[in-house]
Structures are given as structure tokens and as C-alpha cells.
Design brief:
Distance between the termini: 8 Å
Number of helices: 3
Radius of gyration: 17 Å
Structural class: mainly alpha
Strand content: under 5%
Number of strands: 0
Oligomer: single chain
Shape: elongated
Helix content: over 70%
Largest sheet: none
Length: about 90
């Protein structure tokens, strides 16, 4: 069986996650109501029923933190996946 290159898979995952994070953030900025509705559907929750005035918060710090953290988490996950996969197929 073919082995996976763990570093390349991790980098690909991090870059893919970064691209999706940027796209999602743009949707939040330019179409917040649609994204709020989608979030409620994806989490099976009605946030308005919680009685709080909830809204999106989009700052440059939050954007950059999310971009870095989610990309790193994706890279670590995919690196670990490749290492385990390569171990199993030996």
C-alpha cells in the first residue's frame, strides 16, 4: 500500500482550512443573517430562545486567531491521521 506523506497532508489540510475560514468569515461579514440562520440549523438550536441578544463578533484579532488556531488544529489532526495510517499499513 502507498504511504501518506504526513507533512504534505498536514500542510494541505492547513491551507484548505485557512481558505474555508476566510470564505466563512466573508459570509459572516457580508451576509450575517444568512450565516446566523445556517448556524442555528447546523447546531439544531434556536439561539434567540435563550433570551440573549446574540450577534456575530468579527474583529481582526478574532479573525486571525481563528485562522491560525483552526489551521493548526487541522494540520495536527491530518498529520496524526497520516502517521497512524502509515503505521497500520506496515
Amino acid at each position: 500500500m502507498m504511504k501518506l506523506n504526513a507533512a504534505k497532508l498536514a500542510l494541505s489540510g492547513a491551507l484548505s482550512t485557512a481558505i474555508l475560514w476566510i470564505l466563512c468569515s466573508l459570509f459572516v461579514v457580508f451576509s450575517p443573517d444568512m450565516m446566523w440562520n445556517m448556524t442555528e440549523h447546523m447546531t439544531h438550536m434556536d439561539f434567540q430562545s435563550l433570551g440573549h441578544d446574540m450577534s456575530w463578533t468579527m474583529s481582526m484579532t478574532g479573525f486571525m486567531t481563528g485562522l491560525i488556531v483552526w489551521s493548526l488544529c487541522s494540520a495536527v489532526f491530518l498529520w496524526l491521521l497520516a502517521v497512524i495510517y502509515n503505521y497500520i499499513i506496515e
